[in-house]
Amino acid sequence: MGIQRGRFITLEGGEGAGKSTQAQMLAEALRGQGIEVVVTREPGGSPRAEKIREAILSGLIAPLGPVAEAMMFTAARIDHLDKTIRPALKRGAFVVCDRFADSTRAYQGALGNIDPRLIRSLERIAIGADKPDLTIMVDVPAAVGMARAAQRGGAPDRFESEAPAFHEALRRSFLEIAASEPERCVVVNGAQAPEIVARDIWSAVQARLPVAGEAPKMILMPKSKPRRAAKSRAGGK
Ligand SMILES: Nc1ncnc2c1ncn2[C@@H]1O[C@H](COP(=O)(O)OP(=O)(O)O)[C@@H](O)[C@H]1O
Ligand SMILES: [Mg+2]
Fold this sequence. Notes:
Layout: E1 8-12, H1 19-31, E2 37-41, H2 47-57, H3 66-90, E3 94-98, H4 101-111, H5 116-127, E4 134-139, H6 142-151, H7 164-180, E5 185-189, H8 194-208, H9 217-220, H10 229-234
Parallel strand pairs: 1-3, 1-4, 2-3, 4-5
This protein binds adenosine-5'-diphosphate and magnesium ion.
Magnesium ion binds near residues 19, 20 and 98.
């Protein structure tokens, strides 16, 4: 037998939910356990997929319609899996991916006008057996996420500039995905302080993909009121 395959963790949620922040915190916590971690993101995560990302987020693809957009996400995902994710898992690393296939499902679903069977087929072809072992849905009210994203500065991208109703629909889509696949997904309340969110995510990782024993100190900092919120949520619906 060769090296044990690594684990594939994805972070999903709307704009400004805290996915990128939590991806870094989770990677640090895992590295603290001596685990090799590859942090990556979608769209992007490999040189070719990053080029596709630029095209999508600049708004170049949107006028070509949602099917073209879904195809471009898929093209990027195939390259990302090929060049970055599979090689990392194969050598035993943990992959922490900031957005993945649920974002395509939710965004295209929220935009409404694409056959869900097409999305599913593209997903099956692109991903095959390499489904995420664990998906963390970082959940915040759309208005909170949008306010955070706006504070981050810069011009709004292709999706940040969609209407508030779109972002509410998006949030519902992510929660529906989590409810429909409780064995893969855990919903974490992203409207808490970053360290609390990180602690809840760590609890979920330990519950689903136990690594070593101790939680990292950074996350174990004793609070005045210890909470165990993550545990009940981690059980899925
Ligand atoms: N739990 C949190 N509470 C308050 N602000 C946060 C929290 N998590 C992240 N932020 C801030 O909100 C903004 C968006 O976070 P980010 O991690 O980039 O979100 P995402 O990747 O989901 O779009 C950043 O400026 C970040 O510093
Ligand atoms: Mg981000």
